[in-house]
Amino acid sequence: MKNKILSSSTMQTQFPSTILLLLLILTTYHFIPSLSQICNPNDKNALLQIKKQLGNPSQLSSWDPTTDCCNTTWQGASCDTFTPTYRITDLDLSDLQLSQPYPIPPSITNLPALTLLSLANIPNLVGPIPPSIVNLTILRYLTIRNTNISGEIPGILSQIKTLVTITFTNNKLTGPLPASLSSLPVLGGISFDSNQLTGAIPESYGSFSKTLFTGLTLSRNKLSGKIPASLANLNLAFLDLSRNALEGDASVFFGSKKETQQIVLGNNKFGFDFGKVGLSKNLEKLDLRNNKIYGTLPEGLTALKFLHKLNVSSNNLCGQIPSLRFDETSYAHNKCLCGSPLPPCKT
Ligand SMILES: *[C@@H]1O[C@H](CO)[C@@H](O)[C@H](O)[C@H]1NC(C)=O
Ligand SMILES: *[C@@H]1O[C@H](CO)[C@@H](O)[C@H](O)[C@H]1NC(C)=O
Ligand SMILES: *[C@@H]1O[C@H](CO)[C@@H](O)[C@H](O)[C@H]1NC(C)=O
Ligand SMILES: *[C@@H]1O[C@H](CO)[C@@H](O)[C@H](O)[C@H]1NC(C)=O
């Protein structure tokens, strides 16, 4: 193409400009794919297979083989029109009403340029996460949320080195947390809440990137065992381990030098001295309800500018409540917390 344009311009002196213009139009027209053809044919084929493998749900009626799959009319599918490679980079399938239970469509792994895959609010999506998902080698954002996907979280996910977030909220996943995920170099967070995961938090999770890994959400599972001391290395913005059967020293998540905004540990069996923890200046939410946490409330609580939610009820805490603006349900059912809004301390 370069050569043709060059030769056109060298001819500029010999031809009238109208002929030159015609030549340019003819040569360039030849090299710009017609708009109806820009979608990569392999990607188009994979999408049509996916539709078939889901039983042709009506929500995907816009996936029409006679139209271009890079046309924004293909619901949930987006092409790279910026670089442009015209490959399918994002596949966001949500709210599909499937006529019967279907597994994750095998042809999803035939979309090698995917950087975002989201399968959300699909009650009839069943079966395991297929190991072939590792063929999506540049995937960054993986979401499977509100489905009936079951089986274990494949440890093989650690082969997708580009993963930034893994969100598996509210499915039927069972088995352990894969220790291998800690080897993902740019992982920013995992949300595995509301599944049936068992076992302990792996020691290896202490080696998640201190700068990049900021979100750990594992609430509403059946996790048990002690918090590994290695997790003290993390600098999380958001932590939610609530509603499990975890125990031991969760003070490793606290620290005055951390940038933590939310610590939610409620409804576990944690036991540690709350009076000795350091508090992040950014703390907005601290929910420790229903544990075996002892000691006093830390002095530093009163200095937290952003704290708008505190619940330390049903623990073994003692001592005077510092001057804060929370109601008595935030403090109720402790061993001997006292002072406003609870009854005054005995002297
Ligand atoms: C996109 O699809 C619409 C409706 O099918 C059509 O009118 C339009 O020409 C298409 N655009 C491209 C770029 O293919
Ligand atoms: C799982 O399937 C059951 C029965 O079809 C359905 O009621 C439930 O909503 C599904 N769960 C999710 C999270 O979609
Ligand atoms: C990835 O794809 C290749 C070829 O499409 C296939 O042979 C291989 O088994 C796949 N990998 C996995 C882990 O399924
Ligand atoms: C604190 O948690 C208890 C349950 O232990 C709940 O009853 C109460 O409403 C909560 N209070 C606040 C302010 O969140």
For the sheet with most strands, the description reads: 17 strands, mixed
Strand content: 15-25%
Instruction: Please state the structural category.
Output: alpha/beta
- Name of the CATH homologous superfamily of the largest domain: Ribonuclease Inhibitor
Structural domains: how many: 2
Q: What's the β-strand tally?
A: 20
Shape: elongated
CATH architecture of the largest domain: Alpha-Beta Horseshoe
The CATH class of the largest domain is: Alpha Beta
Average pLDDT value?
Answer: 91
Rg estimate, integer Å = 28 Å
Tell me the CATH topology of the largest domain.
Leucine-rich repeat, LRR (right-handed beta-alpha superhelix)
**Number of distinct helices:** 3
Helical fraction: 10-25%
Report the bound ligands by name, code or SMILES: 2-acetamido-2-deoxy-beta-D-glucopyranose
Task: Point out poorly predicted stretches.
Answer: 1-15, 19-35
Account of the protein in words:
This is Polygalacturonase inhibitor 2-like. The chain folds into two domains: 142 residues, Leucine-rich repeat, LRR (right-handed beta-alpha superhelix) (Alpha-Beta Horseshoe), CATH 3.80.10.10; 153 residues, Leucine-rich repeat, LRR (right-handed beta-alpha superhelix), CATH 3.80.10. Helix content is 11%, strand content 25%. Strand 1 and strand 2 form a beta hairpin. The N terminus is likely disordered.
